[in-house]
Design goal:
Blueprint: H1 2-12, H2 18-25, E1 31-32, E2 37-38, H3 42-46, E3 52-53, H4 59-72, E4 76-79, H5 83-92, E5 97-99, E6 104-107, E7 119-124, H6 130-142, E8 146-150, H7 158-162, H8 165-168, E9 173-178, H9 184-189, E10 196-200, H10 212-219, E11 226-228, H11 234-256, H12 261-264
Parallel strand pairs: 3-4, 7-8, 7-9, 9-10, 10-11
Antiparallel strand pairs: 1-2, 4-6, 5-6
Helix pairs in contact: 1-2, 4-5, 6-11
Length: about 270
């Protein structure tokens, strides 16, 4: 949106040629790269640009998509990129930052809005759940949301979580990641006021069935206010939590013209 407004204002002020403006607008609603149609219109419709799912794409395909998005001025988030592929991409585009634990590539550009909403807390049960938890955390941060991380606080050592009681009350939304039996979201859901987005992971022994046991456990939670995303879907959870945090804060501001920290973060 900001890029379109800037282009139109520059044309109005005589600082841009009509041909340049038309060339820019011609890319809306998408740009055809033959193997992909890059949705430049997504930022206008949804408030955040299209996110690139890197798994299954070649390094060259990722490079071409990112170059198209970068030239359009979009903030860039590429998920599920292994270290080797990330290195290939960054050989061409060293402006991208690689987050190895989260396995994502990022680039913040002109339309990036930092800290536009409330706070998202990301919790995970064990260190084996870190890649999924970090994917959620980085996603929310790229959407301009403040994030706090609380890792290795699973129910096998419940005192670690209870020790955080006061700190946990400060968030607008919670992402809770767990494998094995997937019990942590139910516990957190019983402790906090805000919505909890549960993320089952494929971490566990044989009867975990690649995360299915954790998924079913979370779907059967007795704690109200807990919603569940798919197995290992840290991105989806982080995106949803950021939407909740940013829109909740915006509603408070529109209703009262200004709120204190307690109101924003509840």
């Amino acid at each position: 949106m900001e890029r379109i407004e800037k282009m139109l204002q520059e044309y109005k002020d005589g600082k841009a040629e009509l041909g340049d403006v038309l060339a820019f607008l011609r890319k809306l609603p998408y740009e055809d790269l033959s193997f992909a149609r890059v949705d430049h219109h997504r930022r206008l419709r949804r408030g955040f640009p299209e996110v690139v799912f890197g798994e299954g794409k070649s390094a060259q395909q990722i490079v071409e998509i990112v170059m198209a998005m970068e030239s359009f001025g979009s903030t860039i988030l590429v998920t599920r990129v292994g270290k080797e592929k990330a290195e290939e991409v960054r050989e061409r585009l060293n402006r991208l930052e690689y987050h190895p634990v989260a396995r994502v590539l990022t680039l913040r550009q002109g339309d990036f809005q930092e800290e536009r909403g409330g706070i998202v807390h990301v919790l995970c049960a064990g260190s084996s759940d870190l890649p999924v938890a970090e994917e959620a955390a980085v996603t929310a941060e790229m959407m301009g949301t403040r994030v706090r991380r609380f890792f290795d606080v699973g129910v096998a050592g419940l005192h670690r979580l209870l020790h955080l009681w006061d700190e946990l009350q400060e968030a607008s939304a919670y992402v809770v990641v767990a494998g094995m039996e997937g019990a942590l979201p139910s516990v957190v859901g019983g402790m906090v006021e805000g919505p909890v987005i549960a993320v089952p992971t494929s971490v566990g022994y044989g009867s975990n069935f690649g995360g299915l046991a954790a998924l079913l456990g979370m779907l059967n939670t007795c704690s109200p206010g807990v919603a569940v995303v798919n197995i290992d879907n840290g991105f989806g959870a982080g995106y949803m939590a950021a939407l909740i945090a940013s829109r909740g804060c915006r509603a408070d501001l529109e209703a009262g013209g200004g709120v204190d920290r307690a109101e924003v973060t509840r």
